[in-house]
Amino acid sequence: MQRREVVVDGERMVGWRAGYGAGMPVVCVHGAGVSSRELRPLVAALGGAVRAWTVDLPGFGQSGKPSRPLELVGLADALAGWMAAERISGACLVGCSFGCQLAVDVAVRHPELAGALVLAGPTVDAAARSWPKLVWRWARNSVREDPRMAPLNIADYRDAGMRRVLSSFATAMRDGMEDKLPYVGVPTLVVRGEYDRLVPREWAEEVTRRLPRGRLVVLPGLPHMIPFKDPGALVPLIVQLVRDGVPVVRHG
């Protein structure tokens, strides 16, 4: 993968790119409190078929650290600014967890940047918008995640600092993503792991219903962090969406 740096609104943003050629590019968006570390295996796997990118949002990973944590809108605007700096438009935005909320926000407020969406483990449903409920779900889900992810999370939390980490989770809980979904005009694939304890099946189904062009895929045997646990399960779904513009229909 190629590491790239650009400056967006005075802040350094570091991204990674894999693959070359024409066609719809793919941009993978990381979740709350973490960086792109967990998504780079997916980007590398996608690079064999499409142009794929990921980026550390401001405050996380190797990107610059604003003096104050950014709210969801600020993070989404930073993502949009980074895409403009890298001359990426009409992309398939692949959100993971909180990254789904950012992808939806970009698709609604910066529609020229999004040609399709993949929402892998979309958070946060109304029933879990409190710290006790979110922490309980996270604990239940963690037992099924790949143990190799834990040291990556620790490194991400260290790099960002706990004030910024907690702020990112708080802004995720304040966001009513469901109200934006009817305004997403591009083909959208909602992906849920069968054993995802952060994203109930009912919520994944509601997200899909609210999308004008949405489809749901449930992947057997997988938890919340599908892009890290089994990137190979996502690659063909993303590639088909990018090439055909129509989400596959495969309910688990």
UniProtKB/TrEMBL annotation:
InterPro entries attached to this UniProt entry: AB_hydrolase_1, AB_hydrolase_fold, HEAT_type_2
Protein name: Alpha/beta hydrolase
Coiled coil regions in record: none
Domain of life the protein comes from: Bacteria
AB hydrolase-1 domain location: 26-235
UniProt-listed Pfam families: Abhydrolase_6
Source organism of this protein record: Spongiactinospora gelatinilytica
Cross-referenced Gene3D superfamilies: alpha/beta hydrolase
Molecular function GO terms recorded: hydrolase activity
The entry's keywords: Hydrolase
